[in-house]
Amino acid sequence: QVRLVESGGGLVQPGGSLRLSCAASGITLDGWTISWFRQAPGKEREAVSCIRDSHGTTYYEDSVKGRFTIGRDNAKNTVYLQMTSLKPEDTAVYYCAADTLVICGRGSNWFGYWGQGTQVTVSS
Protein backbone atom coordinates (compact mmCIF):
# COMPACT_ATOMS: atom_id res chain seq x y z
CA GLN A 1 0.00 0.00 0.00
CA VAL A 2 1.40 3.35 -1.07
CA ARG A 3 1.41 6.05 1.58
CA LEU A 4 2.78 9.59 1.41
CA VAL A 5 3.08 11.83 4.47
CA GLU A 6 4.09 15.48 4.15
CA SER A 7 5.56 17.58 6.95
CA GLY A 8 7.48 20.79 7.47
CA GLY A 9 4.93 23.43 6.60
CA GLY A 10 4.31 26.50 8.72
CA LEU A 11 4.26 30.27 8.93
CA VAL A 12 7.33 32.12 7.70
CA GLN A 13 8.16 35.73 6.91
CA PRO A 14 8.87 36.85 3.35
CA GLY A 15 12.44 36.01 2.46
CA GLY A 16 12.48 33.09 4.87
CA SER A 17 13.01 29.39 4.29
CA LEU A 18 11.22 26.11 4.93
CA ARG A 19 12.00 22.50 4.16
CA LEU A 20 9.13 20.20 3.33
CA SER A 21 9.43 16.44 3.62
CA CYS A 22 7.46 13.71 1.90
CA ALA A 23 7.94 10.34 3.61
CA ALA A 24 6.94 7.48 1.35
CA SER A 25 6.09 3.89 2.18
CA GLY A 26 5.08 1.02 -0.05
CA ILE A 27 7.28 2.21 -2.93
CA THR A 28 10.96 2.55 -3.84
CA LEU A 29 11.63 6.18 -4.69
CA ASP A 30 14.01 5.81 -7.62
CA GLY A 31 11.43 3.79 -9.50
CA TRP A 32 8.74 6.42 -9.17
CA THR A 33 8.03 10.00 -10.13
CA ILE A 34 7.52 12.17 -7.06
CA SER A 35 6.08 15.62 -7.59
CA TRP A 36 5.30 18.54 -5.30
CA PHE A 37 2.10 20.41 -6.10
CA ARG A 38 0.57 23.40 -4.41
CA GLN A 39 -2.91 24.82 -4.29
CA ALA A 40 -3.78 28.32 -3.14
CA PRO A 41 -7.35 29.31 -2.25
CA GLY A 42 -9.42 29.79 -5.38
CA LYS A 43 -6.67 28.53 -7.67
CA GLU A 44 -5.97 25.29 -9.46
CA ARG A 45 -3.45 22.81 -8.14
CA GLU A 46 -0.13 23.40 -9.88
CA ALA A 47 3.04 21.37 -10.21
CA VAL A 48 5.93 23.06 -8.42
CA SER A 49 8.80 20.59 -8.59
CA CYS A 50 9.44 16.97 -9.40
CA ILE A 51 12.09 14.28 -9.22
CA ARG A 52 12.13 10.98 -11.07
CA ASP A 53 14.15 7.98 -12.27
CA SER A 54 17.44 6.53 -11.07
CA HIS A 55 19.31 9.63 -12.28
CA GLY A 56 17.23 11.94 -10.12
CA THR A 57 16.01 14.02 -13.04
CA THR A 58 14.36 17.17 -11.70
CA TYR A 59 11.83 19.76 -12.80
CA TYR A 60 10.96 23.20 -11.46
CA GLU A 61 8.10 25.49 -12.34
CA ASP A 62 9.42 28.81 -13.60
CA SER A 63 8.35 30.88 -10.60
CA VAL A 64 10.36 28.74 -8.15
CA LYS A 65 13.53 28.19 -10.19
CA GLY A 66 16.57 29.30 -8.24
CA ARG A 67 14.60 29.39 -4.97
CA PHE A 68 13.38 25.81 -4.46
CA THR A 69 15.48 22.66 -4.50
CA ILE A 70 14.11 19.13 -4.62
CA GLY A 71 16.08 16.16 -3.39
CA ARG A 72 15.59 12.65 -2.12
CA ASP A 73 17.13 10.34 0.41
CA ASN A 74 16.62 6.81 -0.87
CA ALA A 75 17.75 5.30 2.44
CA LYS A 76 15.01 7.19 4.27
CA ASN A 77 12.55 6.90 1.38
CA THR A 78 11.92 10.61 1.69
CA VAL A 79 11.73 13.46 -0.81
CA TYR A 80 12.51 16.98 0.33
CA LEU A 81 11.62 20.41 -1.00
CA GLN A 82 13.95 23.11 0.28
CA MET A 83 12.26 26.47 -0.19
CA THR A 84 14.21 29.71 0.15
CA SER A 85 13.50 33.38 -0.54
CA LEU A 86 9.84 32.68 0.09
CA LYS A 87 7.25 35.14 -1.17
CA PRO A 88 3.63 35.75 -0.12
CA GLU A 89 2.55 34.24 -3.43
CA ASP A 90 4.10 30.93 -2.37
CA THR A 91 1.35 30.62 0.25
CA ALA A 92 -0.60 27.43 -0.43
CA VAL A 93 -1.23 23.89 0.70
CA TYR A 94 1.66 21.80 -0.59
CA TYR A 95 1.08 18.18 -1.58
CA CYS A 96 3.41 15.43 -2.67
CA ALA A 97 2.20 13.00 -5.27
CA ALA A 98 3.60 9.80 -6.71
CA ASP A 99 3.15 7.57 -9.67
CA THR A 100 5.17 5.50 -12.11
CA LEU A 101 6.21 6.37 -15.64
CA VAL A 102 5.00 9.98 -15.38
CA ILE A 103 7.05 12.73 -16.96
CA CYS A 104 7.83 15.60 -14.60
CA GLY A 105 5.71 18.68 -15.20
CA ARG A 106 2.55 16.72 -15.88
CA GLY A 107 -0.65 17.84 -14.21
CA SER A 108 -2.30 16.43 -11.14
CA ASN A 109 -4.50 14.04 -13.12
CA TRP A 110 -1.43 11.96 -13.95
CA PHE A 111 -0.72 11.09 -10.32
CA GLY A 112 -2.63 8.40 -8.48
CA TYR A 113 -1.15 8.68 -4.99
CA TRP A 114 -1.30 11.76 -2.79
CA GLY A 115 -0.39 12.89 0.66
CA GLN A 116 -2.68 14.87 2.92
CA GLY A 117 -0.93 18.20 2.32
CA THR A 118 0.91 20.68 4.51
CA GLN A 119 0.10 24.39 4.81
CA VAL A 120 2.76 26.95 3.94
CA THR A 121 1.96 30.56 4.81
CA VAL A 122 4.33 33.38 3.89
CA SER A 123 3.36 36.55 5.67
CA SER A 124 4.82 39.35 7.75
Estimate the mean pLDDT confidence. 95
Q: What is the ordering of alpha helices and beta strands?
A: EEEEEEEEEEE
Helix content: under 10%
Q: What structural category arises from helix and sheet content?
A: mainly beta
- Compute the number of strand runs: 11
Largest sheet: 7 strands, mixed
Overall form: globular
Share of β-strand residues: over 45%
Q: What separation lies between the terminal Cα atoms?
A: 40 Å
Number of DSSP helical runs:
0
Radius of gyration: 13 Å
Low-confidence stretches: none
Characterize this entry briefly.
The chain is mainly beta and 124 residues long. It is built from no helices and 11 strands.
What does this structure look like?
The protein is mainly β. It has strands spanning 3-7, 10-12, 18-25, 33-39, 46-52, 57-60, 68-73, 78-83, 92-99, 113-114, 118-122. It is globular and about 40 Å long. The model has no long low-confidence stretch (mean pLDDT 95).
Topology:
Blueprint: E1 3-7, E2 10-12, E3 18-25, E4 33-39, E5 46-52, E6 57-60, E7 68-73, E8 78-83, E9 92-99, E10 113-114, E11 118-122
Parallel strand pairs: 2-11
Antiparallel strand pairs: 1-3, 3-8, 4-5, 4-9, 5-6, 7-8, 9-10, 9-11
